[in-house]
Amino acid sequence: MSATLSAATIRGSEVELNWRDGAPGLKLPLLWLRDNCQCDESRHPQTRQRLVDTFRIPADITASSIALEQDGRVLRLEWDGSGHVSRFDADFLSELRADPDVLPHSFTTWDRDSIAQAAPQVPYSAFLQDEATLKEFLEQVARHGFSFVEGVPATPAATQAIARRIAYIRETIFGGYWGFTANMEHKDTAYTSMAIGPHTDGTYSFDAPGYQMFHCLAAECSGGENVLIDGFRIAELMRREHPADYRTLTEVLIPGQYLDDSRGIHLMARRPLFRLNDLGRLVQVSYNNYDRAPFALPEAQQAAFYRALGRFDAYCNDTTLQLRRRLLPGSVLLFDNWRVLHARDAYVGYRHLAGAYLNKEDVESRLRFLRVAAGEPV
Ligand SMILES: [Fe+2]
């Protein structure tokens, strides 16, 4: 990135910044600028943690001079009284305009036919050894919400190596790295051979797992096809075709719960099915009708909620929106659990599925650093 300032003007207690590329101006309070001074005394040069004592800065601080340096690539301010000088890179100031909740990427939503063309995947050996392949894999996950690593040995060690290559494995009530067969080891339908409808995991968790990894280590069974659905695509469709239902699902806080009396576990959390951030951008889809806890709404809202939820579920079960694939030993799937819903057909026989959860911010952190190393903007 190379942002360039065209003008910087003090207006009252604020500085107004204008950009050479004509992007909308940015206003920052003088107090904010002193608080976010980037010099080594004000911010630790290595950790970049704040050292300046925010609460000793006068609320009515003023600057004795303001100027652009290096042809608009640097803003210089000299503060009244202390004579302290602050310099800000135009890039740093420009990045303040970005949405901090969303790692910048051009994601594309998909349906059955469009994803059939793309089929994102990378080979296992390159994934382990080559930074560019790891980056490509994570870019695919950012773009489509999922990708496959192919040619993986069907062992727990190889599965874990893939997870650890990206980030550390998240510990939950299911453990860290998990493996399941139809043995009801945990009180969850995942541990049966029943069909499981489209859902996201962790609706009972305030911070639902950001990503989930599956590796089928044994598939001596018939049936058991896996299904992925792009929740962001459903949001686009509902927003356009059923805006009232869409709005309902952005507003109603739906509680999820997980109960296991024998282990003394009762997890609960709630959020809207479509969670928007403060800028109105969709950042998370959460849907698990199995785990929805009983909750009551005022009568009029209750009817609207059931209608909207039914509409969403109908989209989930629309086969033109579904990617269907039988997971087989050797293919590891990583998907964005804040975006992509997953489901599974019933099966007969023996099936051993293993996997892990990864945290949202850890995976995004890995991709940010890989982008920087590749000389790309983050
Ligand atoms: Fe699941």
What does this structure look like?
The chain is an alpha+beta fold. The chain has two domains: 5-95, NE0471 N-terminal domain-like (2-Layer Sandwich); 112-373, Clavaminate synthase-like (Double-stranded beta-helix). The chain is 27% helix and 31% strand. A six-stranded mixed beta sheet has the order 7-8-18-11-20-9. Strands 10-19-12-17 form a four-stranded antiparallel beta sheet. It has a three-stranded antiparallel beta sheet with strand order 1-2-3. The longest helix is centred in the C-terminal third of the chain and has 18 residues, at 299-316. It is globular and about 75 Å long. The N and C termini lie close together (9 Å). The structure holds fe (ii) ion.
What brief labels describe this structure?
single chain; alpha+beta; Double-stranded beta-helix; 6-stranded mixed β-sheet; 4-stranded antiparallel β-sheet; binds fe (ii) ion
Map the helices and strands:
Elements: E1 5-11, E2 14-19, E3 26-29, H1 30-35, E4 63-69, E5 74-79, E6 85-89, H2 90-95, H3 112-118, E7 121-123, H4 124-129, H5 131-144, E8 146-150, H6 156-166, E9 178-180, E10 196-199, E11 211-223, E12 226-230, H7 231-241, H8 243-251, E13 254-260, E14 265-271, E15 274-276, E16 282-285, H9 299-316, E17 322-325, E18 331-336, E19 340-344, E20 347-358, H10 360-373
Parallel strand pairs: 7-8
Antiparallel strand pairs: 1-2, 2-3, 4-5, 5-6, 8-18, 9-20, 10-19, 11-18, 11-20, 12-17, 12-19, 13-14, 15-16
Helix pairs in contact: 5-10, 7-8, 8-9
Fe (ii) ion is lined by residues 190, 199, 201, 342.
